Amino acid sequence: MILEAEDHEQQERLGAVLAQTCQHACILYLEGDLGTGKTTLVRGFLRGLGYQGKVRSPTYTLLEPYEFGGRSIYHLDLYRLAHPEELEYLGLRDLLQTDAVLLIEWPDRGEGVLPAADLQVAIQYQTKGRRLELIANTGKGSEVLHDLAQTLGSKVNQ
User: d(Cα 149, Cα 152) in Å, to the nearest integer?
Assistant: First the structure.
């Protein structure tokens, strides 16, 4: 599925719609160059679920937990991860045992330790805005994409 966002507000709105279609435990990889808006998408995701607090990029902490409304969302930014085994110190194994959504930036830094994504979101610069390519890797990811397509209707290029 290909989506386009003309500005960061539209990218946040796409994140909010994505959150509404991601109702169960799910692993999302957020891929893209620095500044493409991975954290912007996460902010929209959290806002779409009703979170009103500050949304920070966990560039230095690597992990930012959000627990609200009976849901657990974990935002991981692995950009500064020195070695994939460091994920063990973050408690990755425990996180995977919960009914949580994991939003993982720079997943390539955790290769070999991270489980496969249910859904990959690759964000690219365009002349105006961003291009988001969503790829389902599991049945769960396919359900999210199906629901997203239903929600967005004809605005989606598949």
Answer: 5
